[in-house]
TrEMBL record, chain A:
Pfam families: BPD_transp_2
Family in the record: Belongs to the binding-protein-dependent transport system permease family. LivHM subfamily.
Keywords in alphabetical order: Amino-acid transport, Cell membrane, Membrane, Transmembrane, Transmembrane helix, Transport
Domain of life: Bacteria
Protein name: Inner-membrane translocator
Automatic annotation (TrEMBL), chain B:
Lineage: Bacteria, Bacillati, Bacillota, Bacilli, Bacillales
Protein's name in the database: ABC transporter-like protein
Species, as recorded: Neobacillus vireti LMG 21834
Pfam family membership, one: BPD_transp_2
This protein's GO CC annotations: plasma membrane
Domain of life: Bacteria
UniProtKB keywords: Cell membrane, Membrane, Transmembrane, Transmembrane helix
CDD domains recorded: TM_PBP1_LivM_like
Lipid bilayer topology: Multi-pass membrane protein
Gene Ontology terms, MF aspect: branched-chain amino acid transmembrane transporter activity
Automatic annotation (TrEMBL), chain C:
Residue ranges of domain ABC transporter in the record: 2-234
Phylogenetic lineage: Bacteria, Bacillati, Bacillota, Bacilli, Bacillales
Protein name, as recorded: ABC transporter-like protein
GO MF assignments: ATP binding; ATP hydrolysis activity; L-isoleucine transmembrane transporter activity; L-phenylalanine transmembrane transporter activity; L-valine transmembrane transporter activity
Keywords from the named record: ATP-binding, Nucleotide-binding, Transport
Amino acid sequence: MILQILISGILLGGVYILASIGLTLIFGVAKVVNFAHGEILMLGMYLTFWLYSIFNLDPTYSIAIVIPIFFLLGTLMYLFVIRPSLNAPELTQVFATLGLSILLQNLALLLWGADYRTVKTFYSNTAVTISPEISISVSRVVAFVTSLLILLVLIIFLKKTYIGKAIQAVSQDRSAAMLMGISVKRIYMYAVGIGCACAGLAGALLIPQYYAFPTAGVSFILISFVVVVLGGIGSIPGAIVGGIIVGLLESITGVFVPELKEASYFIFFIVILLIRPNGLFGVKGAGEEGAR
Amino acid sequence: MNKQKKGMLIGLLIVTLLLPYLIQNEFYLHVLTSVLVYAGLASSWNILGGFAGQLSLGHTAFFGIGAYTSTLLYVYLGISPWIGMLVGGFLAVIVSFITLYPSFRLRGVFFAMVTISFGEVIRILFVYFRNKTTIPYGVTINYEPSFTNMIFDGPMGYFYVSFVYLLIILVISWKVKNSRLGFFLNALKENDEAAQALGVPTSASKFKALAISAFFTAIGGTILVQNILYIEPESAFSTSISTELALISIIGGIGTVAGPVIGAIILIPLGESLRALFSGSVQGLHLVLYGVLLMVVVLKNPNGIMGFISSFNKKRKKKREVQLEEVPDVRG
Amino acid sequence: MLEVNNLVKSFGGLQVTKKVSFEVKKGEIFGIIGPNGAGKTTMFNQISGFIKPDSGSITFKGNSIEKRSPKDICKLGIGRTFQIAQPFPKMSVLENVMVGSLLRTKSINQAREKAKEVLDFVQLNVPYDTPSSNLTISDRKRLEVAKALATEPELILLDEVMAGLNQTGVKEFINLIFELKKRGTSVLIIEHIMEAMMTLSDRILVLNYGEEVLTGKPQEVANNPKVIEAYLGDEIHA
């Protein structure tokens, strides 16, 4: 029983990490909270769904199409929404991306209606039974493993490539990075592009388990807020730990009071934000933005 | 306020009061009533979001609390919504104190993130505890028109109730804006350290704004539900209510008294007519427009329509001043 | 009136205030000087409640204030200015000052009258409805003083209000401060312009690396070898 809770919590955590990694990446670099992050994820779900239902493409393979498209979408979002709000008042920083989220949600409603859509893969409903008490859904494992792989690729990219290193430099110290000759604005664009690609990817990997519908992003953005703030917003290792914590919390409360599992991590989130605005591990930089 | 402005306002008041007699069309009257209620709701939001600069995305909680309190008290205990409305208002103030008040130390975006989560928590908790009772998912208020029941047998009654609601909140807005509290909130919003150095009470000022804001948002919830006579958790506690109130204020002009009214006059008829024109098939169209409008306004002109008007006035004034200054030049 | 006793404050490992004690008497102009980083502004921040000292006491009119909030301290009668002027940028000059005068009255009209009076006193000669973001540096400094004065302080802390002003500006400010003294307001002032400090101060405290070098009359301070060393030493290290 305990093992089952742990396993499903960690598997869920993997999904949440993937869903929120883009949010924390964008915040870390550009110091903007992307309120439309959930809608990008929702669009990722839809794209994967259409690729599947029109071309019969398996969600795992559609990644190859999702990544470039969402990277492009991210750069557009950067140019038209995020860049103009970079040095703007708080009002603009909150409501520009919130406006985009309202727009995308209802555009989806307009185009595809309110129907719930999902992709049934051959492994969608199979579960592996390890012992009488433990059974694991295959699609969760697939999503978990793929998201770990993607995370690994992302971390290697950040550590090894020039753009990756520049992204890290900018998120640590904007002015120093600028002095080092890094084109900060261009790095912002890459970061937002990569962040969006991550969100779209998360959507692609989640569609076999979750339904795509216009407001599907709302619950994911709220979970992402919890995940990134727990670990310290802007920090990628923080998001990984945050994701696992939220996954575990959800699977534990899911056993006792299933109706309240969402409330549990929100309350946890609120308490953390109020007593430790820098996140559980006190990542530098986030707190200055978080509380004064 | 000068005489000319006062005269204009009184004229506007009289015209609005007579509108139901001029407009016989029921749909138009319904839209007009919606404008009044949403203008009142947005004005309530604006007292916290605009005057105090605390961008709340959790006002749906207060709205839902107000709507549900009066409805449940009326349907199950037979208590008049007029009383239930006040009970709901006070309940919202208590909840706001427990939830939003501790969040005041968070800055802008983080305050927005926390409040949006609060709205969700309240909804989830409400749905959970409702399941433990015999209260059905959707509650219908029986149509028994009487003043005590706050149910009217025509759009006229609702119009005047909404009108009085808006009038009260506008008077309070104006009083707050032009009082010591208004100055303090404005100072805290612009530079809270400098404000504290001048002895401005941070917590007390923000709490007053929060209490007024929560109370009147709840009252608006009651008035709206009495108009529809039906309530369910998903719509009463929907995040979109919070964003819509913010949107109306921002488009009209955040932090001004008239802003939310102007915002409601523009957005509500736009939304209602689009909804009426394209029913069913294109239901998201007005919200797509809202989203675009919100983005364009905050990116291009964060002060909204009021900001546009005041910069226009300033330009005109400057032009006049320049002309005046030129006179001595000519003489010299 | 204001007594500071054995005040200690450190940030991380760095002690920025080391057992400093002094007293400002009623109606006195008390100056604090010292090289950059001597801990002068930190001292102000502790007196005005923005930073809590690690140990030691601050007493104002018999009330211990070292644990009070900035707002309470202001209410008790200590006004302060900031080294970098902190106007409320979207408010007019008059409204800026009204925020201060509203501390002592609830009436907007009274606050407005009081604010006008203060603005005239500091000779901020611009129209009352000028947006504060449009002011020149010297006018910003005047506004900063006006805001603090509007709270009707018995003691005012002035943090480099003359920095960046020209000769006439400095002279006008010196007259202004003497005028304040005449009205019975005590003044605690930090300033780099030595000439001004020598003319103005009744007594001067010299700080270096958070430590008191000495306290004395302007003449004593000017001739003290330790003071000269502190300043010259600073030059060499810099």
